[in-house]
Structures are given as structure tokens and as C-alpha cells.
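Lab channel / #folding
Pinned by the channel admin:
"Please post every new chain as: sequence first, then the C-alpha cells as a reply. Keep commentary short and put observations after the output so the thread stays searchable."

First post following the new format, from NK:
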Amino acid sequence: MSVPRAIRKVFLAVEQAEGAGARVRRSIGTSQLRNFSPFLMLDHFSIKPGAGFPDHPHRGQETITYLLQGAVDHEDFAGHAGTIEAGDLQFMTAGRGIMHAEMPRQNPDGSANVGLQLWVDLPAHLKACEPRYRDLRAAEIPRADLDGGKVHVRVISGRAAGVDSVKDLAYTPVWILDVQMQPGARLAQPLPDGWNAFAYQLEGAAVFGQGDGKHTVQQYHNCVFEPRGDVVNVEVPENAEGPARFVLIAGQILDQKVVQYGPFVLNTPEEVRQALFDYQFHTNGFERAEGWQSEIGKSMVH
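Reply from TO:
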């Protein structure tokens, strides 16, 4: 018998300024939700032309960027450069050290570039790995249809309705499902028992949970589940104004301390101090940061 997941809390991701002129709705990594291993941060970002995230370092984590609208260029000090467009993802492992820039494309109609960025902790034994990138293009993502076509799932990572994702893209095991549900639709989505999981509502509203534990989750709200249980129940009422869309994300809990200072995520205060030293003096993975400037970041220099 499957055990449905109970809901721990539901809260609004409040919009705030971040980077250079970007707007983000941050739900994980705020006073509402911290220490939610392996997740460190979730930003729903909107970057207008002329804004962005110019040259900055990372150590000790992975970032997963899922673009919903527009296009974003990236470039790093190891010579990696590329663009992700709507529906594409980029998995970036910072490991022992990376310095990069993420800048929006200038859309002809002046519209914003919108997406999600999730920070995932790395297990202690992988914190010092070499940096790496994996791109996942929209066309490569398998799809699953359920409930007579009323539920449509993009299986970015993990599995849904017997459809497996293409490959493991992050070192830390994470499932990412992009779910769209029409009015009247129902879904019972299995998730690994014991993993931390949440659903972030991108569009419309959906009802999560069972019986007395049901919650209606509105747009821009994060629905956080209890770790016990192996299935999440969701429905969209027949009389809903329109379809609902959310990302359902789960990750294996890492049994380790998180000591974070901005873009450096390590296990002890000493390791954070070492990261600051290494970045400042271009050592232990940050050698290539010395004198490096991204081409795409120069558009921000006035």
C-alpha cells in the first residue's frame, strides 16, 4: 500500500531584488524554509534586458537552471559558454570552484527572461570535484500523459507514469517533474520515501494532499511535504478557472552540516574561510579567476 505524503507547510514566495536588476521569488533559502537538505535555494527569477548575474564565484554546490521563457547565456573561466532557451535546463556543478556569468538575452519585444534556479548541496566527498556542466534540451525531455490526457508531465529527472528521465544530471539524486493539469484532473505521483520534496506553483491553483489534510496551493506558493510517504496526491477542481502548472521536486537528504556564505556552501566555518581565501588569492581551484572577465558580463559594466 502506498502512503500519501502529508503537507508540512504552504507559503508565498515574495518577490525581491537580486543580482544586477533581476527580480526573484525566493522560497527555499528564506526564513520560511531553511535546512531543507539537499536543497539550499529556489529562485523563480525574472530578468529584464539590461539586468543579469555578472561574474561571480561558487564552491561546494550544484545549480540547476530551468528556463521557462526567453534565453540566458552563460560563460565561465574554464572556457565553457552557451545558451539555454525556453524549456531547456543547465546543470552546473561548482565543485572546488567556478567563476561564471549568467546574462539574459535581449528579447526584441523587451520581454523578461523567466525561469527557476535551484541550488542543490553536494555530498562532502564531492565538494572538491572538478566543475562540470550538463545541458538538457527541451526536445530531449521525455513526456508522460495521464488521466486521459488531462495530466501532462515533463520528466526532467526521475520517473512518472512508467516513463524514466533521460539520465542522471546531478551528483546528488534529485527528481524534477514539470506537471500541467487541466480542470477535473487527478494525479497520484510516486516519490522516493524519505526524500525531502516540495511543489512550487507556477500557474493556476492545485489541491494537494488527502482528506482533512488537503491544501489549495495558489500561484507563486511553495507546498512543502513531510519526508515520510511515497506518493503525492494532487487534483484540480472541475470548476477551476484554468489549468494548473507546478514543478514537483524531491531530493535525497544529505546527513551533513551546511555552512553557507553567499555562493560558497561547505561543511565547516574553516572551509568557508578557506574558500574566501582561495577566491581572493586565486588558489585551490580559483587559479583561473585571476584577471578573468566574461565577455557577456561586460554589457553590465557602465
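NK: The chain has a mean pLDDT of 93.
TO: also worth noting, The helical segments are 269-281.
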